[in-house]
Structures are given as structure tokens and as C-alpha cells.
TrEMBL record:
UniProt name for this protein: Carbonic anhydrase
Catalytically driven reaction(s): hydrogencarbonate + H(+) = CO2 + H2O
Main EC class the enzyme belongs to: lyase
EC number: 4.2.1.1
Family: Belongs to the beta-class carbonic anhydrase family.
Residue numbers spanned by region Disordered: 1-26
Role of this protein: Reversible hydration of carbon dioxide.
Phylogenetic placement of the source organism: Bacteria, Bacillati, Actinomycetota, Actinomycetes, Micrococcales
Amino acid sequence: MSEKTQPKISDAKKPTSTPKTPQEAWQRLRDGNERFIAGETLHPHQDAQRRKDLEHVQKPFAVIFGCSDSRLAAEIIFDLGLGDAFVIRTAGQVIDNAVLGTLEYAIDVLGTPLIMVLGHDSCGAVTATKNAVDSGELPRGFQRDLVERITPSVLESKRKGLNTLSDMVVEHTKQTASRMLDQSRSIAAAVSKGDAAVIGVFYHLDAGKAELVYGHGPWFPERS
């Protein structure tokens, strides 16, 4: 089938309004992930009019702080478009002052209602940390800093008797989400007031499924 004869996606099916609450934001992300899994993506907000609308202002409905892994492209796996998500990525979703400042900008300035910490199976950074903990040998250079920041999560996972790599990624996702609340007064205040929520999500590379593993705030989404 040529491009000229391919059916055009109905504009009526594409999301129009911007989610205003954490609940609405998570539902929009979950809906997009379900479309991605089913191979029914809508590719919303990717046209010329959307570019024009966003020329002078942005109002993303979610902050997605995820791993830099090339298989974890947030806009694709949640079927998003321009201006929908404020995306931050580091190897192993390692949090530092620059990340916290970026997250606070999204909450304080942009008024974004949802922060998602996004981990995934087969994570290279967590694998390196697990290997370092098991062998006692740390990597060289700045990779060592990544490993040192992930090590508490790996040790906590082992303490709980959860020894698979996926267990450790889930634990690290939870601890990262919890840590940003402990370290940032702005984020903690927004969550306390109900203006925002922080969730942790584990992404299954093979199935394409985004699984909720952590939530904090007056609103807490169903785990489904």
C-alpha cells in the first residue's frame, strides 16, 4: 500500500485536551502504552499546527525521567507528540543535582502534574552495578559514579532476597522516586498539596508493557 492510499488516522481518535491532574496524566500515558503494545499508535500532536501552537509556550502533562537506553524512547512507547512530555534521561535513571533542578523546573514553572521514573529490564547500568557488587571491582572513569549511585538499590534488593536483575531495577526505580521526594522540597510540597504525584514504572522490553511499581501522593493509581 502506497503512502497516497494509506488510510488517514481519524482526528477524532487523537487526544485533544491536556491532562490537568496526576490521574488524568497517568491514564493518558497508560492509554498510549496500550496502543503501542497493540500496534495501533496514533502519533498525536506531530503536525505543523502543533509546532505552531508550541512556538512560544509549552505545557507538558508529564515528566518522564528514564534511562538513556536506546530501547526506552518515552515518546514512542507512550505514543506521545510534541509538547506532551518533559523528558529527562540518564544511564540507569541516576539522579543528581542537575536532574533535580530540571524536575523542579517542570513542577514549579511548567506546572506539570506527574513525574514518572522509568526503569526497564536488561538495564546496562544496573547490570554493571550488580557485577561490581558481586566482584568488588568498580569500573573506571565517570562510570564509577553511576555505579556508586546505584549500589544502594542493588544492596537493598539483595537484603530483601530479591536477586534477579529485574528485581534490582524495580528496587532502583522505587528508590529513585523516593529519593527525589526526600531531596526536593518543591517536589515534596507539590505532591503533599495534591498538585502532583510521583510514580515508578518498570518497562518490559519484549512485551512493551509499562508496569506501575511505585506511587506516592494523596492520589495513588491502581496497579494494572
